[in-house]
Specification:
The protein has ten helices and eight strands. It is an alpha/beta fold and 307 residues long. It binds pyridoxal-5'-phosphate.
Length: 307
């Protein structure tokens, strides 16, 4: 739940957002597991380790109920992006991957947002110390300058597809613009710049400042949680910090905060009641200060109106 994977019939079916029901989605046979967001979904008295175990138990119960041979794969973002920047609970991937391996179910990392540096490593799965069976990449692949995506298969899935393709003489699957040479050229250059011109190092250098800034703003009585990884972060607005009670949806709190930021020339995204930041890898510490100063003004202004 809460994961975002796209808008085609299948990727929207994998997406764990209720709004896809207006399109008659998900299609049958797509199963969604609980969102591993401990702050929001942890039960009273439940430790983070117990919460992670509950997520893992749910996975195993689901596999047993459905039958492992009916399951094509497990899809997850290392950090949920459009769900509101939600890092998984502590030890999540270490808890679920052995279960997937036990039942021979591939783990596919949707790295469309996390990939190529966003979390401080080339891949989000490196940040979370797991090796997926396949990676989906886009966005940073071309630094956003050209629409392109990539599916990167590990040897096992690749061999299986190869063998299946030989049986029918070709791999009967591809888009008109697959492997587009302009996209490939831009991707190669963008990867070169990100990997070899110190951008990932800059993400790493800035991450502690980013976290400090988020933590400082989270001292506000109407911010329930700050969260993030690398240079993706979120502040979650709450009407009541102790009970984590959200604001009345009709107040559109996160939209108002985002609009108050836009008025000052800062773009951030409202997602649910969270305000999400995803700054450029070339950010400087001075720009980071400016970003937080603007966000702080926006928060103060909006909370003065609604709280
Ligand atoms: C994690 C993730 N996966 C997949 C997608 C879908 O990518 P596209 O819009 O290129 O299909 C997105 C888009 O935001 C995304 O954030």
């Amino acid at each position: 739940m809460n994961a975002y994977h796209g808008v085609t019939a299948v990727s929207a079916s994998m997406t764990g957002k209720p709004y896809n029901s207006v399109f008659g989605l998900p299609l049958d046979n797509f199963i969604h597991l609980s969102c591993p967001h401990y702050w929001r979904f942890g039960k009273d008295g439940e430790t983070e380790a117990q919460f992670t175990q509950r997520m893992a138990d749910e996975l195993e119960e689901t596999i047993k109920r459905e039958g492992a041979d009916t399951i094509a794969g497990f899809f997850a973002e290392p950090v949920m992006g459009a769900g509101g920047v939600i890092p998984p609970s502590e030890g999540y991937f270490q808890a679920i991957q052995p279960i997937l391996q036990k039942y021979d179910i591939p783990l596919i990392a949707d790295e469309v947002i996390c990939g190529f540096g966003r979390t401080g490593n080339t891949w989000g799965c490196e940040t979370y110390d797991f090796m997926p069976d396949a990676i989906i990449s886009s966005k940073n692949l071309t630094a956003g300058y050209f629409p392109m995506g990539a599916v990167i298969l590990g040897p096992e899935l690749s061999d299986r597809l190869q063998a299946a393709s030989e049986a029918i003489e070709e791999f009967p699957h591809g888009f008109t613009a697959s492997g587009h040479p302009v996209g490939c050229a831009i991707a190669l250059k963008a990867i070169d710049v990100v990997m070899n011109e110190g951008l990932i190092e800059n993400v790493r250098t800035l991450t502690p400042l980013f976290e400090e800034g988020l933590a400082r703003l989270a001292e506000n009585p109407n911010i329930g949680e700050w969260r993030g990884k690398g240079l993706m972060g979120a502040l979650e607005a709450v009407a009541d910090k102790d009970t984590k009670r959200p604001f009345d949806g009709s107040l559109s709190v996160s939209e108002r905060i985002a609009n108050a930021c836009t008025d000052q020339g800062l773009i951030c995204r409202p997602l649910g009641q969270a305000v999400v930041l995803c700054p450029a890898f070339i950010l400087t510490p001075a720009q980071m200060d400016e970003m937080f100063a603007k966000l702080e003004r926006a928060l103060k202004g909006v909370f003065a109106e609604v709280a």
